[in-house]
Specification:
Two copies of one chain form a homodimer.
Chain A (H helix, E strand, L loop, with lengths): L5 H4 L5 H4 L3 H7 L4 E5 L4 E3 L7 E5 L3 E7 L5 E7 L7 H5 L7 E6 L1 E7 H8 L4 H26 L2 H13 L6 E3 L2 H8 L3 H13 L3 E3 L3 E4 L2 H7 L2 H13 L7
Antiparallel strand pairs in A: 1-7, 2-6, 3-7, 4-5, 4-6, 8-10, 9-10
Helix pairs in contact in A: 6-11, 7-10, 8-9
The structure holds a DNA duplex (30 and 30 nucleotides).
Amino acid sequence: MITRSSRMMDPRLNRLLAAIPNPELARWTPFLEPVELPLGRVLYESGVRLSYVYFPTTAIVSLLYVMNDGASAEIAVVGHEGIVGISLFMGGESTINRAVVQSAGRGFRLRASVLMQEFNRSGPVLHLLLRYTQALITQMAQTAVCNRHHTLDQQLCRWLLLSLDRLDGNSLVMTQQLIANMLGVRREGVTDAAGALQKAELIRYQRGNITVINRDGLERRTCECYRVVKQEYDRLLPATLAT
Amino acid sequence: MITRSSRMMDPRLNRLLAAIPNPELARWTPFLEPVELPLGRVLYESGVRLSYVYFPTTAIVSLLYVMNDGASAEIAVVGHEGIVGISLFMGGESTINRAVVQSAGRGFRLRASVLMQEFNRSGPVLHLLLRYTQALITQMAQTAVCNRHHTLDQQLCRWLLLSLDRLDGNSLVMTQQLIANMLGVRREGVTDAAGALQKAELIRYQRGNITVINRDGLERRTCECYRVVKQEYDRLLPATLAT
DNA sequence: ACGTGTCTGTGCGCTATCGCACAGCCGATC
DNA sequence: GATCGGCTGTGCGATAGCGCACAGACACGT
């Protein structure tokens, strides 16, 4: 554990960082701090001014809205293709959302001031971040649509696929209760839907550990929302960035 | 009809334009074209490259997603506080959404190239537009939450209030079918909910014409989503811009 | 005055999801 | 290897919203 493998520590594991051209990225390198992102870690809270932005590499971060009564709903998900903390450069400095680590892993953080300094040069970094933000907007919009029109079963498929796209293997560590919080539904509903997917031989589920065994089947079972979001990410972000 | 009153033609009726400091706004003035925005006019279509952006003054524009099967859902609404066509400066040049005039009125349009020229100066206009975009993102996120958790009754209240905030008087021209398309629900559902609001003496409804007679009552009846969005607009946008 | 098309109201069975209660089960800990 | 806490499965009744069918009401053009 003393020598950290360079594979794990390479900022370019984050596709957004990987897409930053060299003079710009070089300016950041000394300031990019590798961080552990354990399950449940809150990266920022609703209304709090950000001091860091995060570039996940192997972790996945959920942007949630938590209601007064404690119920919650996922707005969007950010993995190795993105950055957590867009409200910083968008100018608001805080959001009404909470950012929570949904799948443990690693990432890099960068001081807000360092990011803003580069952003204000109005070079490629600004344009890259804005394009990423548009992709994120698309995901949020599609989440709204999906919440309105599609069944829990389809939404679970979409959610699994979005997560899978941001992970290495084909399994994820996630209890049904947590999934229910993300999707904003009852835990029992997730049990039902996951049971159906298991019966259909699409996933295997065992105590907080989901293994996808038929990805194509999930894609066929989900609604159009997944495909729409994925296509838009592919279109908006550089090729190496494709999720 | 020959002499158009300057009141109707003042770009500063759009609060975003009003917030642009003078040297910058002066550069735009010759290019700001007043436009009629009749009900149902489509300002841009999913996936189409934008040639203009729009600054509504008295009109309200809905950002909709239309699904393969024809069903639709409103993602956000833009009125005199905003701009239609953010994907232009965000870098994507198109969105998956459609922009439709939801309430007839007027506005200004500006050639994409003129907007981008100013945006690329990286001055106050860039920062203003990005802050507005963050407000819009908040609205989209809250739409997703609201679609997930709140009743049609509450959502109708939210929708009426958001529309009212962007209009002069306290009445709006809007059939139940159109409202249903926006909210992504059945027309009969809107009939029920509107009937309930009428019975509660909050609105008066007659053939495509809604009059709000108790605004406070609506605010008390709606979910937290309305308040959250409004507060965030107030926080992010200059005072004169408050919706 | 009349017809026509659009808008609004109502009824009815259906389904997805909720809310709640509880039982079984695994896995870590002592 | 017994216990305990968190995870998962299941079974109710309740309800919000859907899909469909149809009837009344109003607006407007001829």
